[in-house]
Design a protein that fits this description.
Layout lengths: L2 H10 L4 E4 L3 E3 L4 E2 L14 H7 L2 E6 L10 E2 L12 E6 L2 E6 L2 E7 L5 H6 L5 E2 L5 E2 L6
Parallel strand pairs: 1-4, 2-5, 4-6, 8-9, 8-10
Antiparallel strand pairs: 2-3, 6-7, 7-8
Amino acid sequence: MDKTLANLASAVAGIENGILGAYEVAENGDLANWSTGPKGVPAVGGAMDLVHGAKRVAVITEHVTKDGKPKLVERCSLPLTGVGCVTRIYSSLAVIDIEGGRFVLREKLPSLTVDALQSLTGARMVIPETIGDLIVPEL
Protein backbone atom coordinates (compact mmCIF):
# COMPACT_ATOMS: atom_id res chain seq x y z
CA MET A 1 0.00 0.00 0.00
CA ASP A 2 1.45 3.39 -0.92
CA LYS A 3 1.73 6.27 1.56
CA THR A 4 -1.40 8.10 0.31
CA LEU A 5 -3.59 5.01 0.65
CA ALA A 6 -2.14 4.24 4.07
CA ASN A 7 -2.95 7.77 5.27
CA LEU A 8 -6.50 7.56 3.90
CA ALA A 9 -7.08 4.16 5.50
CA SER A 10 -5.92 5.37 8.90
CA ALA A 11 -8.08 8.53 8.65
CA VAL A 12 -11.23 6.61 7.74
CA ALA A 13 -10.65 3.95 10.40
CA GLY A 14 -11.38 6.45 13.18
CA ILE A 15 -14.86 7.44 11.93
CA GLU A 16 -17.75 6.55 14.24
CA ASN A 17 -20.65 7.03 11.82
CA GLY A 18 -20.77 6.94 8.04
CA ILE A 19 -23.84 8.37 6.32
CA LEU A 20 -24.37 7.66 2.63
CA GLY A 21 -27.01 7.55 -0.07
CA ALA A 22 -27.98 4.31 -1.77
CA TYR A 23 -29.33 2.78 -4.93
CA GLU A 24 -30.15 -0.41 -2.99
CA VAL A 25 -29.85 -1.80 0.52
CA ALA A 26 -30.29 -5.51 1.16
CA GLU A 27 -31.88 -6.93 4.29
CA ASN A 28 -28.50 -8.34 5.35
CA GLY A 29 -26.96 -4.84 5.31
CA ASP A 30 -25.28 -4.99 1.90
CA LEU A 31 -25.04 -1.58 0.23
CA ALA A 32 -25.04 -0.66 -3.46
CA ASN A 33 -24.47 3.05 -3.92
CA TRP A 34 -22.54 3.25 -7.16
CA SER A 35 -23.14 2.18 -10.71
CA THR A 36 -21.23 1.78 -13.91
CA GLY A 37 -23.05 4.80 -15.31
CA PRO A 38 -24.78 5.10 -18.68
CA LYS A 39 -21.56 4.42 -20.63
CA GLY A 40 -20.20 1.65 -18.39
CA VAL A 41 -17.71 3.92 -16.65
CA PRO A 42 -17.32 3.06 -12.94
CA ALA A 43 -18.39 5.87 -10.64
CA VAL A 44 -16.95 4.85 -7.28
CA GLY A 45 -15.94 7.52 -4.80
CA GLY A 46 -14.74 7.30 -1.23
CA ALA A 47 -17.83 5.36 -0.17
CA MET A 48 -16.03 2.01 -0.08
CA ASP A 49 -13.43 3.46 2.28
CA LEU A 50 -16.17 4.93 4.46
CA VAL A 51 -18.23 1.76 4.82
CA HIS A 52 -15.18 -0.31 5.71
CA GLY A 53 -13.75 2.23 8.17
CA ALA A 54 -16.84 3.54 9.96
CA LYS A 55 -18.13 1.74 13.05
CA ARG A 56 -21.76 2.32 12.05
CA VAL A 57 -23.17 3.00 8.59
CA ALA A 58 -26.52 4.70 8.01
CA VAL A 59 -28.21 5.24 4.67
CA ILE A 60 -30.45 8.16 3.71
CA THR A 61 -32.56 7.41 0.64
CA GLU A 62 -35.90 7.54 -1.07
CA HIS A 63 -37.86 4.39 -0.26
CA VAL A 64 -38.49 3.61 -3.94
CA THR A 65 -36.88 4.47 -7.28
CA LYS A 66 -38.29 7.00 -9.73
CA ASP A 67 -40.01 4.01 -11.37
CA GLY A 68 -41.61 2.96 -8.07
CA LYS A 69 -39.37 -0.08 -7.51
CA PRO A 70 -38.15 -0.85 -3.97
CA LYS A 71 -34.68 0.31 -2.98
CA LEU A 72 -34.82 -1.89 0.14
CA VAL A 73 -34.47 -5.40 -1.21
CA GLU A 74 -33.76 -9.02 -0.29
CA ARG A 75 -30.48 -9.00 -2.26
CA CYS A 76 -28.78 -6.17 -4.13
CA SER A 77 -28.73 -6.49 -7.91
CA LEU A 78 -26.25 -3.64 -8.42
CA PRO A 79 -22.49 -3.69 -7.69
CA LEU A 80 -21.80 -3.69 -3.94
CA THR A 81 -20.10 -0.86 -2.13
CA GLY A 82 -20.00 -2.80 1.13
CA VAL A 83 -21.05 -6.19 2.46
CA GLY A 84 -23.20 -6.32 5.60
CA CYS A 85 -22.20 -2.78 6.54
CA VAL A 86 -25.52 -0.88 6.89
CA THR A 87 -27.10 -0.75 10.35
CA ARG A 88 -29.87 1.84 9.84
CA ILE A 89 -31.88 3.25 6.94
CA TYR A 90 -33.58 6.64 6.98
CA SER A 91 -35.92 6.48 4.00
CA SER A 92 -38.48 8.97 2.77
CA LEU A 93 -41.17 6.83 4.45
CA ALA A 94 -39.61 5.10 7.45
CA VAL A 95 -36.70 4.46 9.77
CA ILE A 96 -35.57 0.85 9.53
CA ASP A 97 -32.80 -0.95 11.40
CA ILE A 98 -30.96 -3.99 10.13
CA GLU A 99 -30.67 -6.65 12.82
CA GLY A 100 -29.89 -10.32 12.37
CA GLY A 101 -30.09 -10.02 8.58
CA ARG A 102 -33.62 -8.56 8.65
CA PHE A 103 -35.26 -5.17 8.19
CA VAL A 104 -36.80 -4.06 11.50
CA LEU A 105 -39.30 -1.20 11.28
CA ARG A 106 -38.72 1.48 13.94
CA GLU A 107 -40.70 4.50 12.68
CA LYS A 108 -43.01 5.25 9.77
CA LEU A 109 -45.00 8.19 8.47
CA PRO A 110 -48.27 8.33 10.46
CA SER A 111 -50.29 8.60 7.22
CA LEU A 112 -48.91 5.28 5.92
CA THR A 113 -50.19 1.89 7.02
CA VAL A 114 -47.74 -0.92 7.77
CA ASP A 115 -49.26 -2.92 4.90
CA ALA A 116 -48.76 -0.04 2.46
CA LEU A 117 -45.14 0.37 3.60
CA GLN A 118 -44.53 -3.37 3.28
CA SER A 119 -45.87 -3.31 -0.29
CA LEU A 120 -43.22 -0.70 -1.15
CA THR A 121 -40.41 -2.69 0.46
CA GLY A 122 -38.67 -5.46 -1.47
CA ALA A 123 -38.15 -7.75 1.55
CA ARG A 124 -40.25 -8.69 4.56
CA MET A 125 -39.91 -6.37 7.54
CA VAL A 126 -40.02 -7.40 11.16
CA ILE A 127 -42.83 -5.39 12.74
CA PRO A 128 -42.33 -4.75 16.47
CA GLU A 129 -45.27 -4.28 18.80
CA THR A 130 -44.50 -0.55 19.07
CA ILE A 131 -43.65 1.57 16.03
CA GLY A 132 -42.86 5.25 16.38
CA ASP A 133 -44.27 8.00 14.19
CA LEU A 134 -41.78 9.50 11.77
CA ILE A 135 -42.38 13.22 12.07
CA VAL A 136 -40.89 15.27 9.25
CA PRO A 137 -39.83 18.74 10.47
CA GLU A 138 -41.10 21.79 8.66
CA LEU A 139 -38.38 23.72 6.88
